[in-house]
């Protein structure tokens, strides 16, 4: 087990793909409220279950009677997911996998998690947001490489103005590009294999669909 890698089980969609299974292998797990429903599919038992439990049906509680619970009132100043992340950090997390962070019925929760993921990366944490089919990786000043299959789709929405953006090994490469805040220029690109990104200033997130090969 990797003692510093934590998977936070959230309430959004989660699909048991090979990439998801590889990502969470040997990690520690904390469930946030109804995100516990993903535990059975993953074949794991979290070390902690936090939340106000307003989205937890009785049968789910009964299925995991021995998992330690950390209840919070519904009227609280943070989401169950953020509380779970803070508990993981308190327990020594360096890498955070937010499983179930993308998709679902609540766009407000999904957007908040995307922004939170970027904030965590700015604090020095290694962050992955995933639904199994879709993955999100914060992009900050510096360089990263994502191992994406050839033909898979990805986008780079900016959360600020981006300067000095480079995208290599993609159908639509960019070099020292200036992306105004709110521009759609970096939406819907296609990987030619592992894609390299670098950024001089700004903050963004890479949203990739490794199983969507419609760009082939």
Describe this structure in words.
- The chain is an alpha/beta fold and 216 residues long.
- Helices cover 21% and strands 33% of the residues.
- It folds into 2 domains: 5-133, 3-Layer(aba) Sandwich (Rossmann fold), CATH 3.40.50.10240; 139-209, Sandwich (Jelly Rolls), CATH 2.60.120.
- Strands 1, 2, 3, 4, 5, 6, 7, 8, 9, 10, 11, 12 and 13 form a 13-stranded mixed β-sheet that branches.
- Strand 1 (5-9), helix 1 (18-24) and strand 2 (28-32) form a beta-alpha-beta unit.
- The longest helix is centred in the middle third of the chain and has 16 residues, at 107-122.
- The mean pLDDT is 92.
- InterPro entries: Thi_PPkinase (IPR006282), Thiamin_PyroPKinase_B1-bd (IPR007373), TPK (IPR053149), TPK_catalytic (IPR007371), TPK_catalytic_sf (IPR036759).
- This is Thiamine diphosphokinase.
- Its EC number is 2.7.6.2.
- GO terms for molecular function: ATP binding; kinase activity; thiamine binding; thiamine diphosphokinase activity.
